[in-house]
Design a protein that fits this description.
The protein has about 425 residues and is of the alpha/beta class. Among the domains are: about 150 residues, Alpha Horseshoe (Serine Threonine Protein Phosphatase 5, Tetratricopeptide repeat); about 140 residues, Glutaredoxin (3-Layer(aba) Sandwich). About 60% of the residues lie in helices and about 10% in strands. The two termini are about 50 Å apart.
Length: about 425
């Protein structure tokens, strides 16, 4: 919201070079009125929305209508205002059929599904499918995310599972319970989560398959899902208790059913993680020493856990980084000093989004030595700028972090930090 206000204010400054009393209804007058309204709204989100809506009412033919409606849609999402999400969000999505605003697609779809009517469901289904197409289009962009391929695809699988839940709900609201159940189960198979378990249970109940539904509701309750709130868990518990008692006469034995559900979802998660690890050894990695860095030249990767007990110097660089070109040869000189020690390891880690640039760059610069690709390590270590050099101690903990580059002092500074780390 503030960024939009700043844009409008900057535009107002340019337009302010016009005569002090612009004609009523002119573009200049509209700009002045809009800038004044936003200024008076201050930091209040509610007043900001009202100011923009009043402006559109006063200038129904405004050439900035699309821009203002987009700002209103964003504000509605931030405020979780379902009425305005539908009012402005749909306008934005219709005006921008190729929009990759996944948050807006998700919010508009869910707002439409607040209603059970078929017409809203049909619109929701269309947006959910658009949502799904955008997610699949993102799969080739793993390196741009600075996440490991496994973590990236797992995140997209989770998003796809949420999309399938929305498609299931829309399909069911269009009186196709069997189709809804199929989609809900597909969501569960794609990435098991509490929401897909609830959705599957919901459509099993609609089809009078209550015994099967109880198992899915138990799975939802037993699932460790970060998106599940305490209110969600309370509802899961109440629904599960009511259904179990209805089928069995009481809640006796419900505890055992929940333990079985816990075992089921734990086994599913282990299987899911094992499948991801076949594609990416870094899938599920949460600690630094769990990571494996791929060799840029296609050689053997390096597993960071294998370096435990040594001092590790990690140089994060990129082909577009000017200082990196000067710094790299300096690191190579320091590296020569420790070649015979066996206790210090140097890792040169490229952070480019486009990995295809790396090989020709290395040839052009005539760099020798092995280069590794970042596979989520920079993200884990909160590397936010390039160049950054991190020194790890023998346990794999950060001993030193050097951000930026001071040419005349770099070699002495890095050598000193290596020695301090080795001494501890």
């Amino acid at each position: 919201m503030k960024r939009f206000a700043l844009i409008l204010a900057a535009t107002a400054f340019v337009h302010a070079q016009t005569p002090p009393e612009p004609k009523s209804g002119s573009a200049e007058q509209e700009q002045l009125d809009l800038s004044k309204a936003i200024g008076e709204a201050g930091s209040s989100g509610v007043d900001y929305v009202r100011a923009l809506e009043r402006h559109l009412a006063k200038y129904p033919e405004s050439k900035r209508r699309a821009e203002i409606e987009k700002a209103l849609a964003k504000s509605a999402v931030d405020a979780n205002d379902h009425t305005r999400i539908l009012l402005y969000g749909e306008k934005v999505l219709k005006a921008e059929p190729q929009s990759d605003d996944l948050q807006l697609l998700d919010k508009v779809t869910r707002a439409l599904l607040d209603s059970d009517d078929a017409e809203s469901a049909a619109r929701a289904l269309g947006y959910a499918k658009r949502f799904g197409i955008q997610i699949e289009a993102m799969r080739p962009k793993a390196s741009e995310s600075h996440m490991s391929e496994g973590a990236w695809n797992d995140q997209l699988d989770q998003s796809k599972a949420r999309v399938l839940v929305l498609e299931a709900r829309a399909t069911g609201n269009m009186s196709d319970s069997e189709g809804a159940l199929k989609l809900a189960r597909s969501s569960w198979d794609t990435s098991p989560n509490a929401e897909s378990a609830r959705e599957t249970g919901k459509w099993l109940v609609k089809l009078n398959r209550n015994a099967e539904a109880v198992e899915y509701y138990a799975d939802a309750f037993a699932m460790d899902d970060s998106r599940t709130t305490e209110a969600d868990r309370a509802r899961d518990r109440a629904r599960l208790g009511d259904m179990y008692a209805s089928l069995n006469g009481s809640e006796k034995g419900l505890g055992d059913a929940i333990l079985l559900a816990y075992d089921r979802v734990s086994a599913l998660k282990r299987t899911h993680l094992a499948a991801l690890k076949l594609k990416d050894p870094n899938a599920g990695a949460t600690e630094l020493l769990d990571f494996t860095l791929p060799d840029a030249a296609g050689g053997a990767p390096v597993t960071l856990s294998s370096l435990k007990g040594k001092t590790v110097v990690i140089d994060f660089w990129a082909t577009w980084c000017g200082p990196c070109k000067v710094q790299h040869p300096m690191i190579e000189e320091i590296k020569k000093h420790y070649e015979d020690s066996g206790g210090v390891v140097f890792l040169s880690v490229d952070s480019d989004s486009d990995r295809s640039l790396v090989t020709p760059f290395i040839k052009e610069m005539r760099w020798s030595g092995r280069i590794y690709f970042d596979a989520g390590v920079a993200r884990l270590l909160n590397v936010s700028s390039i160049p950054t050099v991190i020194v790890l101690d023998k346990t794999g903990k950060i001993s030193s972090r050097m951000i930026g580059f001071i040419p005349e002092r770099f070699e002495d500074m890095l050598t000193q930090r290596i020695e301090e780390t080795r001494a501890n």
